[in-house]
Amino acid sequence: MSRTERRAPWLFLSPWLLGFAAFTAGPMLVSLWLSFTRYDMLTPAEFVGTDNYRELFTDPKVATALGNTLFFTVLHVPLQIVLALVLASLLRRAGRAGGVFRTLLYLPVMTPPVALAALFLLLLNGQTGAINDVLGWFGFTGPNWTTDPAWIKPGLVLMSLWTVGSTAVIYLAALTRVPPELYEAAELDGASPWRRFRHVTLPMISGTVYFTVIVNTIASLQVFTEAYVMFYGNAQTEAGRDDSALFYVIYLFQQAFGSLRMGYASAMAWALFLVIALITALQVRASRRLVHYEGEVR
Amino acid sequence: MRTRGRGFALAGLVVAAVAFGYPFAWLVSASLKDRAHVFDNALLPVPFAPQNFVEVWRAVPLLTWIGNSVAVGVAAAVAATLSSAVVAYGFARYRFRGRGLLFGLVLATMMLPGAVTMVPVYLEWHAVGLATTQVPLWAQNLFGSAFYIFLLRQFFLGLPSEVFDAARVDGAGPLRTFTAIALPLARPGMVVVFVFELRSAWTDLIKPLIYLREPQFYTLPRGLKTVLDRFGQGGESQWEIVLAASVVATVPMIVLFLCAQRYFVRGLVTQHVEQ
User: Is residue A123 scored above 80 in pLDDT?
Assistant: First the structure.
């Protein structure tokens, strides 16, 4: 092998190696160091030991923001997964006609979240919104989704389901890879549709479901844009509002770029990283019992 | 039995289509209503008020924002596509010590929460004097992006190795083999990366919020947030303007999807099924 041949792979890898140093590894080290300092960008960073981390435990807004974020995640992830599974199953059974529906279900994913948030502020409006109109047809009086502190997060969850198409399309691809012989065998054995789903479909796609649960959870714990657009960044609507839509990354953003508390924001970021790592680790452990990989011997 | 299942599925999908399509219909319809009728929830815009789109054009620099979004989006997509292809080719074509470990590291960065590097990366751009420009919105893409590297590596691994061996026999160097043979063959994969990144740059709000201060540098989502705050809630309650601007921000993405649907689906499927 010539010298150019031996050097070649490193030449091709060099953009990523540079980028990893400059935008991942370097920033992580800087962030870790900053989390032990007080830094407002105007005066030099001052070492404060573990003050920032101790403040995390006494700052009531951190507890509120973390609680809100977990509340959203616990509702959003299971609903998203179940709805995506239902829609994907329907799409698979629909055959060729499913293509049009697949396109329609995916369009919300293409909508900029800012536009989506503006639209749903009106659809969710307690007095004039179309969603409460629909609830009214069935005799329900819908809540004030955008102003009632008890209903803001459920409203955001409801809205988040509109972009379920991205997960549904992934499940559809997984479903079409299940060998049809398995269904035929189950049908011959007289298995009901539910039992076929429970004992054939679910085990065959559990690897995909597991992966989407992890990815969706990590994304949910960093939920930001829709809630920020609807409830923050506007002095007039922020005034007098309680913290029921204050999600963790929104508070982190405010601390960093509003109050210029770069040290505290860095400590917040590392705390979130730990929470996410912990939850992911729990999910990985649970998956060892629940996920079936094809070709695996037990 | 079979046909009953299919009929049931179609009925369910029609219900879903109404539920998922209705917000779009509402948005387009309301953007064409006059101020008194924006909230009437009627499907057809009566009276018809297309002048909302002229008004929003007059009220805010919409054309500048569209231009910014196109420039940032194309720069981000081109940078991500080319750099990720270069790195992916290095992982797919060569065997070298530490390859498995390094590729594992690439995959691990996909799991890293963006919130962790948000502050220090901002400080880096601040240190080099670019923190209030559009550069941070796309320049990071020059260094390859984990998911796209993963996706393109799959493409390169799928190419028959004979074509590369033939090129080597012909005396082509590594760079020439890459540009003349590998890149043209991987074009479908590169289109996937391009449209994915275009979508992601076009719709992003977090980076524009952090970096862009002057309205003449705003991208469409950042501008739309200003429109919402000024004409929507807490503002002058001219929601028809907000909705018209929302339509303008959304339509290009719908067109992009309708033109490149199969690439989006292919990208999504690679992302999760082939893990």
Answer: yes
Q: What end-to-end distance do the CA atoms of chain B give, in Å?
A: 35
pLDDT in tens, A215-251: 999 999 999 999 999 999 887 777 778 899 999 999 9
By C-alpha distance, the chain A residue nearest B149 is A16
Task: Map out the domains of chain B as residue ranges.
Answer: 2-49, 60-273
CATH number at residue A281: 1.10.3720.10
Of the listed ranges A3-7, A148-152, A252-256, B7-11, the one predicted with least confidence: A3-7
Residue to mutate among B4, B8, B20, with most A CBs inside 10 A, is B20
- The more confident residue out of A240 and B213 is B213
**Is A82 an interface residue toward B (CB < 8 Å)?**
no
- Asked if A292 reaches chain B (Cβ–Cβ under 8 Å), the answer is no
CA nearest A269 in B: which residue?
A: B116
- Identity of the residue numbered B151: L
pLDDT in tens, B108-126: 998 888 989 999 999 999 9
How distant, in Å, are the alpha carbons of B31, B106, B145 from that of B100? 53, 10, 17
Q: How confident is the model at residue A278 (pLDDT cuts 50, 70, 90)?
A: very high
pLDDT band for B271, please (50, 70, 90 cuts).
Answer: low
State how far the alpha carbon of A134 is from the alpha carbons of A30, A130, A297, B15, in Å: 51, 6, 51, 14
Answer whether residue A286 is part of any domain: yes
Counted domains in chain A: 1
The amino acid present at B124, given as its one-letter code, is: E
3-state SS assignment for residue A115: helix
A200-209 pLDDT tens trace? 888 889 889 9
Half-sphere exposure of B232 (CA within 13 A, CB side): 29
In whole angstroms, give the CA distance from residue A81 to residue A214: 11
Query: Is A154 an 8 Å CB contact of chain B?
Result: no
| Cα(A136)–Cα(A127) distance, integer angstroms | 11
Distance CA A229, CA A119 (A): 11
Asked if A255 and A265 count as a contact pair (C-beta separation under 8 A), the reply is: yes
Angle formed by the axes of helices B220-231 and B187-203, to 10°? 20
Asked whether the ipTM of the predicted complex exceeds the cut of 0.90, the reply is yes
CATH code of the domain occupying B60-273: 1.10.3720.10
Contact B243 A212 (CB under 8 A): no
- Give the DSSP letter of residue B33: B
Cα A161 to chain centroid distance, Å, stands at 11
**CA–CA dist A267, A1 (Å, integer):** 49
Give yes or no for residue A268 having a pLDDT over 90: yes
Q: Do A19 and B203 touch (CB under 8 A)?
A: no
List the structure tokens of A269: 């970021």
Mutate to test the interface with A, among B99, B119, B137, B143 (most CBs of A within 10 A): B119
